[in-house]
Amino acid sequence: MSVVGYARISDDDVSPDRQQAALEAAACERIYIDRATGLRARRPFLADALASLRDGDVFVVTRLDRLGGTVADLLALVADLDERGVALRSLDEGIDEIGPWGRFFFRAASALAAHERTVEAEVGLAAERRKRDARQPRRQTVSRHRLRIARDMLADEAPVRDIARHLGVSERLLRRELERDSTGGGEDRADDTRPQTFG
């Protein structure tokens, strides 16, 4: 059995001394160190460390965030190590994948990752709906108040063309809404039953 350590230092870290000292104290026989910042930065020594692991080995990090990536990436890495018979330990978080706390942690993390994927999918669907709705022109309507004004003006024998201009809508829209209103097609149009004439 080999105990293999991995450290990642950010570009603004002066040195990996703290992580390296912690890994040495954890009896790591080999320690791989990357200098990288960001979730998607290249980590060539992480790849080397993972490739060196064998069945029965222990892979040690000071914190899980040293491995980088998303929760889903971390879970995929842990699943791969598990399939290969490699245990994972995180010193600062007290996680030992061999023990019951480690197994509980990664079950909880799996549930969180599934939740994260569900939320991302829902957000994506909502964004698609907003894009689709934005592409579809909204059906124009004329308010109930304006229709009352239009009826009053029609009763005074004003031409529909002039009424539409007065209300700031197109003549075609006004005629359509008056027709819908007279046949009960409007949402709340049923209180005025005076006959309408179109001039």
TrEMBL record:
It comes from the Bacteria. GO terms for biological process: DNA integration. The keyword DNA-binding applies. Residues 2-137 form the Resolvase/invertase-type recombinase catalytic domain. This is DNA invertase. Residues 176-199 are annotated as: Disordered. SUPFAM superfamilies: Resolvase-like (SSF53041). Coiled coil: none annotated. Keywords: DNA integration, DNA recombination, DNA-binding.
